[in-house]
Design the sequence.
């Protein structure tokens, strides 16, 4: 079941954690946002950016392809 409001809140929480330097917790928040709303372009884009920033480029590239299909 899609829960866009929860997805928005989880994505925002991910941004807060990412800005605080806690990439692991930010990733969890972004993934929870995507569980609640698989079409969340914001959460997916943020996750792609985060993964690239921590050197997980191959995983980021796969998710970027998914993001490109959504946009």
Sequence:
């Amino acid at each position: 079941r899609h829960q866009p409001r929860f997805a928005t809140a989880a994505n925002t929480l991910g941004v807060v954690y990412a800005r605080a330097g806690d990439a692991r917790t930010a990733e969890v928040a972004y993934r929870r946002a995507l569980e609640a709303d698989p079409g969340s372009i914001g959460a997916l884009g943020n996750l792609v950016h985060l993964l690239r920033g921590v050197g997980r480029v191959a995983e980021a590239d796969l998710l970027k392809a998914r993001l490109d299909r959504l946009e």
Remarks:
- The mean pLDDT is 95.
